Structure formats: C-alpha cells, structure tokens
Amino acid sequence: MSGDWSARAHELFKEHEIKQVAYVPDAGLSKLIKSSLADNDIRTVPLTTEEEGIAVSAGAWLGGQKCAVMMQSSGVGNTINMIASLTTTCAFPLFMIVTMRGDYGESNPWQMPMGKAVQPVLEAVGVRCIKAETDEEAAEAIKAGLLMSFHGGEAVAVLIGQKLIGAKPFAGAHARAKAGD
After folding, report:
1. Has residue 181 got a pLDDT over 80?
2. Quick check: 15 pLDDT over 60?
3. Which of 21, 42, 122, 179 is the most buried (most CB within 10 A)?
4. Going from the N-terminus, what domains does the chain have, and what CATH number goes with each?
5. What one-character-per-residue DSSP string does the chain give?
C-alpha cells in the first residue's frame, strides 16, 4: 500500500469504478480532489453546500454510476436531513469520505461541537462510520466502505482523523488575548 492515503484512495476509486466525485473543497482532501480532477474517467462535481453531494450521489446511482461524496466534518450537519430522507426513502448506496475537525489536536473552539457530533449524528440517521487515523487504516477503511456501500447497499462514511491529516493552527481571539495582542 502507498504511504499516502489519498493516492491509495484514488486507486480504489478506479478499482471500484467510481465515476463521479462530489466534493466541498477542503485542505485535508486536496490531494484526492486534485487526482480526481486530473482523471479523465472521473467526473468531478464541486459543491456549494454539502447536502448537494447526497443528491448528486443519488442521481449518479439512478444513472448507473457510482459516486463518492467528500467533505469536512464541519459540513456534515448540513447533510443530515438529506441523508435521513433520501437514502432511507430511496434506498440507494451512499459513500462518503469526511475529513475530521474538532478532533485530535484541534485548537479551534468553533470546530469542537461538530467534531464531537459527527459520528453519533451520522449513525443516528443510519450511516455506518469507519474511523481511520493512519495511512493504512484509511486505505483499508475506504476499501471496506466502498464494498459495504456499493455491494452491501449501505450508507457509509469513512472518517479521516486529524492524527492523519493534521490539526490546523488557530489564532482566535482567546489565543491572541493570551499572547497579549
């Protein structure tokens, strides 16, 4: 396996015939987004809001294609009604990769609430969550998630933790006040 989870994820997209990738731009997903954009066999769909990805995935499935939806954890809250209603009512497979914020090493207090809520909220609306903290775990989780989703008919989210993608520095008002700014 490659030491870069995003390179292996792109290989898995090819192996599992992912034809569409819907995404909200995110630094943790940037390599995977770039490789998808460069791949003539994958149609990339930039989203203005995360719930659009759920609809794109449903449309892809209805059109005979597989789609991967990618976003940061802070946008998961935007998808809950769409996931709960559309995936349950229409019974289509959903595969998501979610890069986590409000996780290991986070210093931005605005990211903490959703970081804590992502897994329980997704599970409450019927999405299986698979956590990954290393390159190897991420590749294995993506492979398992693709199989569970497109062969098992499940809604699956692979949660890529901050131990893997790194925590972003935050210099909010609290941090500046302590520094004497």
Report:
1. no
2. yes
3. 21
4. 5-179 (3.40.50.970)
5. --S-HHHHHHHHHHHTTEEEEEE---GGGHHHHHHHHH-TTSEEEE-SSTHHHHHHHHHHHHTT-EEEEEEEGGGGGGGHHHIIIIIHHH---EEEEEE-SSSTT---TTTHHHHHHHHHHHHHTTEEEEEE-SHHHHHHHHHHHHHHHHTT--EEEEEE-HHHH-PPP---HHHHHHHT-
